[in-house]
Amino acid sequence: MTDRIYLNAVDADGNALALAVRDGRILAIGAEPPELPQAQVTDLRGHLVLPGFVDGHIHLDKSFVGDRWHPHRPAATLRERLAIEKSELAAAPPIEARADALIAQAAAFGTVAMRSHVDVDASTGLENLHAVMAAREKWRGIVDIQLAAFPQAGVMSCPGTAQLLEAAVREGAEVVGGIDPSTLDGDAEGQLDCIFGIADRLGARLDIHLHEPGMAGVEQIGRIAARTRALGLAGRVAISHAYALGDVDARAQDEAARKLADAGVAIMTNAPGDRAFPPVLRLRAADVRVFAGNDNIQDSWWPYGNGDMLQRAMLIGYRSGFYGDAELLAALDMASHAGAAVLGLQGYGLLAGNEATFVALPAPNAAAAVAAAPAQRLLFRKGEPVGEAATAFSRPAR
Fold first, then answer.
1. Contact in structure between 191 and 178 (CB atoms under 8 Å)
2. Closest by alpha carbon to 91, among 72, 68, 58?
3. Nearest to 339 by CA among 373, 295, 289
4. How far apart are the C-alpha atoms of 285 and 68, rounded to whole Å?
5. Distance, CA of 38 to CA of 159 (rounded, Å)
6. In whole angstroms, what is the distance from residue 16 CA to residue 320 CA?
């Protein structure tokens, strides 16, 4: 057996923390470690220890990370944006290489799991999915990557896509995607019949991009919640973005929150810079699970992003006006435990028996880490220091 003890760390609240690790799993965690005479001891020198981050929404097939810089090209309509994207991606390096580069960058920031939406439509077929699946295989055991078959061009309005979504799930995608059933597809009932039908038949999860604004978007949320309840899919359905919840008054928000909570539908937000977005704390108070993702990263949609989920938690807090420690911790929960629950991860978090995979940061507590998003990250996977962490704590303390 390989025993390790990590001493002199702090937990999310800033309290003293020690971890005992045996064979890659947490044997004990608390203020004091157990007696393990043969253990290798590492002094973490006051660093904050957090579980690895979870990116609940990323597009690995779209990013230009690993490629040259692509200046952003404006577009007047969604269809124009899609055309620009296809043109730029056609001239970019292969998807597998770019996806691999972005996974590596996210992993270096401490991400241990992600849900990647991958374009599936009549023009691309399953090509993007197969490329991202190949990249995923390289990271198996390091980053847990869940794939969502994403009908970017629509379902009902793009003939053949419905069949491809089902084929994608049969070939390994764990999640069926959807997008703007009314404003893009023009047939809300048809799209929802299709994607809920696939999820129900094949036991897949659902994650629907919903950009539809105002009360029309809120009504769509109600349809999704009703179908989720009817099919008994609580905990398996998410709505990404749900901008409408940031457009409407408190009464409409509360009514939508009640439906979401009753149905067990989660909400993902990345707190986009130019758009109203869901009221995080109001939804959480109503027992709606709210999680976070980076969404697009340096691609045809926008030039921003680097894959850092701690920075994303900071941006969510910044845009939401989170100042108190409890609010900052809510933002961190969205980038960790809430995302892990939505993805259905087993054995996640800093608990005895779980895999000893964690991040150490120079911060006095978790609220301070969210507020400052320190760039320095020291990574530990299955109880072992990774990269810089392997040498950082072997040097004498200054």
1. yes
2. 68
3. 289
4. 44
5. 64
6. 30
Instruction: Please state the rounded mean pLDDT for residues 26-52.
Output: 94
pLDDT category of residue 398 using cuts at 50, 70 and 90 = very low
Rounded-to-integer distance, Cα 218 and Cα 238, Å: 14
Strands 175-179 and 205-210: parallel
Task: List residues bridging with 240 in a β-sheet.
Answer: 209, 268
Return d(Cα 27, Cα 359) in angstroms, integer.
17
Nearest CA to 41 out of 58, 14, 15, 18 is that of: 18
Q: Which of 249, 333, 319, 310 is nearest to 277 (CA)?
A: 319
- Rounded Cα distance between 390 and 160, Å, is 50
Distance set, CA 162 to CA 38, 120, 121, 122, 225 (Å): 58, 9, 8, 9, 21
Q: How many CB atoms lie within 10 A of CB 98?
A: 25
The interaxial angle of helices 188-202 and 161-170, nearest 10 deg, is 20
**DSSP character string of 125-189:** BTHHHHHHHHHHHHTTTTSEEEEEEE-TT-STTSTTHHHHHHHHHHTT--EEEEE-TTTTTS-HH
Instruction: Report the alpha-carbon distance of residue 235 to residue 208 in Å, rounded.
Output: 14
Task: Return the ∠ at Cα 152 (arms to 291 and 259), rounded to 5°.
Answer: 40
Please name the helix (run of DSSP H) or strand (run of DSSP E) that holds residue 319, with its range, or none.
helix 309-320
Q: Tell me how far apart the alpha carbons of residues 47 and 68 are, in angstroms, rounded to a whole number.
A: 35
Partners of 361 in beta bridges = 48
CA distance 371 to 201: 44
What is the model's pTM? Answer: 0.96
**pLDDT category of residue 393 using cuts at 50, 70 and 90:** confident
